[in-house]
Amino acid sequence: MINRRNLLQFSMSASATLVLSQGLNQKLLAQNTNLAVQSINSTTALITGSGCNVLVKKAANSELLVVDGGLQANAAALRSTIERTLDSRRISTLINTHWHREQTGLNEELGNRDTKIFAHENTRQWLGTSIERPWEDVIFEPLPAQALPTEIFYHYGNMPHGNDVVEYGYMRQAHTDGDMYIFLPADNVLHTGGIISSDAWPLMDWWTGGWIGGLVDGIETLLSIANDSTIIVPATGPVMTRAQLVVMRDMYAQIFASVRELFMQASNVPETLAAKPAGTFEGQLGASDMFIELSHWSLIPHYTPDA
């Protein structure tokens, strides 16, 4: 029987330097701000360049719903762009699709205003505690009390936004354990939260509850909501169609099966990396070593019951 503690220690010591350098490079790249606006329709827009894809919806009463908030360093510019683009300063609801700082940079900017900050309970808990992940030399300090989510949910539901309804749901353990989706039925727009990107591998954040099997399950949930006309907004990168999401689901299912097979054969991280389980797809999404390494680690709590 594989001992999780020993396997984890070996895996981290064998390749932590590679993952650390790639993780820091990703963080530095995410801080390059170049805000751009893509109009979806007269009341809905996508803003890119703040650290993630930010979806904004304007209600008939001019209240604004904002899904995700980019990095804190970009918060003032993002807020100004939102208000100018939708011709309103009434940001009534901010949704955090998960705890990552690339998504929660508006929390402090809007936390002192009359803005509801909405998230899954697990996201609220992660934002309220110190996080130090083993693959990077970064400590994420708790957000101040006024920047924490003010309303939380646990499973599925909907909320009113002007005359429209906003649907949301929990994707359990996907790339964190607080991932949620947002669906705007009137616009047929689905924001996937952080579990997928159309231009890069997602961060498989096993330290805060994510795992690659849950990532595949999360994509299945998204597919159950979308139809052939749905505009699918990933965490970063261009919007997607349902057909493109099906291809992505198949890709991650294939990678999951390969990494799981190697893991069950007691392969260590260097051996899993050497097998290149995502090599076929690197032409689309770039080098996969960090994603595969974190995916390998993410299997430990699910397949080593003795730990």
Order of helices and strands: HEEEEHEHEHEEEEEHEHHHHH
State which percent range the strand residues make up: 15-25%
**pLDDT < 50 runs, ≥5 residues:** 1-32
Amount of helix: 25-40%
| Shape field | globular
CATH-assigned homologous superfamily: Ribonuclease Z/Hydroxyacylglutathione hydrolase-like
Provide the domain count: 1
CA-atom Rg in angstroms? 19 Å
Q: What's the helix count? A: 10
Structural notes for this entry:
Helix 1 (4-30) packs antiparallel against helix 9 and helix 5 (212-225) runs antiparallel to helix 6 (242-264). The chain has ten helices and twelve strands. It has one domain (4-303): Ribonuclease Z/Hydroxyacylglutathione hydrolase-like (Metallo-beta-lactamase, Chain A). The chain has 307 residues and is an alpha/beta fold. A seven-stranded mixed beta sheet has the order 1-2-3-4-5-6-7.
Notable features of this structure?
single chain; 307 residues; alpha/beta; Metallo-beta-lactamase, Chain A; 5-stranded mixed beta sheet; 10 helices; disordered N terminus
